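U., I forgot to send this yesterday:
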Amino acid sequence: MKLEFHSLSKSFGDKQIFDQMNEAFDSTGKITTILGESGSGKSTLLNILFGIDQEYEGTYSIDGLDTKNLSDTDWDYLRSQRIQIVYQDFKLLEKFTVEENLYFANRIYTVDYLKRKSKLLALLNLESIEHTLVKDISGGQKQRVAIARALLNDPEVLLLDEPTGNLDQENTIALFDYLKQIKEQGKSIYVITHDDRITSYSDTIYLLENHQLVLQTKTDVQKEKIKKRQKIKKRKKIKKRQRTNKNKISIRNVVKYIQTDLFRNKSHFFVTSIPLILILSVFTLLFTGFKQTTLDSFTDLFKGLAENVLYIDTQTLTQKQQTKLNKQQIESSTDGKRLYFSKVDFKKMEQLNNVEKIIPFNLGNFILDEDNNELQENIDTKDFPEEFKQLNSFSTAPSLITFSFQSLLLPNKDLYYYNPNHVKVVSGRLPETKQEVLVPDFYKRYLELLNEYSDTISLNVKDSSDNFSKKNYLISGTYETNYKNTFVPQMRINGSNAFPIYIPYRDSTDLDTLKSQNSYEDYKKSESTNPQTIKYLKSIYDTYDDYLKSIGTGNGSVLIVAKKEEAVPEVTKEIEKLFPYYQIRSRYSLKNGEFSITYRKLVFTLLAGLSIASILMIIIFVFLNKQVISQKKKELATLFSLGYSKLSVKSIIGSEIVIQFLAIYFISMCVVWVFDEFYLSKTTYSTYFVNIFSLENQLLLLLVILLTSFFSTLWGVSSVNKKRLVENLK
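Result:
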């Protein structure tokens, strides 16, 4: 390989290093020594030869090619297979073994790596320390490891920077003997040094002085011509190898490096991860609790509606209209035209395009069965079977678990369209006759454990005369509760928390009572609170006939079922035209109607929390890993000098950061699980954390990790640019 300088000049500020320097090196199988005093530019010359310093004037060419025209990829190849360097401080991977340092330097995948490695270990007397960590070996041994690594890929040129600087006399003599053996393999060896002891082993000697290279001696000219002919022949072979293996970096090497590096630094990774694990664990609990009490509670109002259903009620106005009435001191929640929907109203809805049907109903639920019996059933948790007492949720149970009758809101066939209580039948079916009931799943299990379960159940009831008795009912099925997480009743029935035992749907509309003269008088009296309200409601109760007209069908609520989900926006607009003051509730309105403002505020609050957690974790990560990244830069610079591309180097540091954050996520979730299992689940607060490990919650927490690792990776790889890598090599 011919290395040539033509009119090369280099300076640092006002200090001139090289001035119009011209020289050609073409010495296969020789040791060329460049001597010079400290500060004469020896290391600068080495950096130019190795391609890590390209800020000079003039030309540096390799085999006739101007190196300034070479791409980064070309230089990656040259540094990996054709030119190698042994630094004065060795630049080995200190936390890796001798063998691993060689393995990660390997670039010739078509030639047996094990044979080449064994040959070099034997040549340099390193076999006994093959599996020893580099940080545990001597300076002389490190020197030989660095040489072995440099020779592994059979380079044509070997550069050595002050190779005797850290060696005693014995190791220096040994080094010279090794270089002599290496020279005999046909390598061009260039030694940059101020130690003139090497001159007796050198074939060509230059002195760097007065900004020029001055030739001191040469070997036999005829011998050089023979070597030159051999070199030309070999160059053709090497150029052929360049075409087949150019810039080939093994993904396996990169993956193994990441794996080995993480293992070697596991203690540090764990220590620096502890604060982040604690932050993510605490954030997970706070985030889940806040989400449960705000966003989840809000969206639960809509989850009971089918995707193609709209719900309106005559007693629920839009927020804008209700605010307007309040400002006018009008104390009413109606539109001033009707108390209930009329048949004409329903007909107009049915005739709308894309409306499949309407379902009129009233929101009331019966807590008495059809014989006017009130349920008086309860369980003392002291009498719970042992299986229940072993549950973590047992600690959340009140001393007395109460049950209450509750009728289904809609007929069984329509419950699909609106199921606000989220009744989910897990066995059997919904009750249909007045003798049938739907019981909670844990109640069925309770009876099974007591060997008292059958198709018929005897319940304590109280009749309208306050007489207590036992009454038999048929169990039509069971519905799902969350009893394995909490025994706290989630429904308030008749003024107290109780688990419902569902009875069949009953129409609560009582037109006769609504249309009575007494009802008219009572309503008129209750609504005559001030002049503004009286004026606003005049069309409703000015006369008894007006009142009867406003009663209509006696149904204050209606479900509008669209033919398909995609038609909901269009149907919403049509309903708004018919009833501009009524609030429309649907899955669509949650994100597009008047509810969307509240929904977006809640989502924004959660996203702000996610962002704050991410920023806090990034700051802590950067603070804790600043020194590590600084040390990592030196290792990555070493890989760069071995021919790893910038992309490979960036992928290493980026992958390690991502892996660390994924480990933080999984460990944090384990911490949260332990805390929940042994503490939270035994407190009354457990209901706020039942969704910790839900898919939605985990995806949001993973979003935190992805954001954190993404920006942390950007910070980490920002140091991986050519200029900074080169700085760490100088």
